[in-house]
Amino acid sequence: MARKKADRSLINRKGKLPGCDMRFTMFEVVIFKRGPMKWEWHVCDRNGNTIMQGWEHTRRAAKYKGDRALFLLLAAGNHDPPGPG
Asked: How many CB atoms lie within 10 A of CB 1?
């Protein structure tokens, strides 16, 4: 049985499929250098609001921890309450 690919033209500007109550949420991992031995990471939503944050001594560790936090957030199923249309 062949799988059908989703047609991106069906997704409206609010990130919803017509007739579907599922919303698409975008997250981003941002890393800042805060000193010679301090890197800060943030997991932000599409509006730039920080959801999780932390700091590490190396950029590599900060990237790992930020990516790990994003994965755990997605695995936990961060669901927004249903909003109007």
From this structure: 3
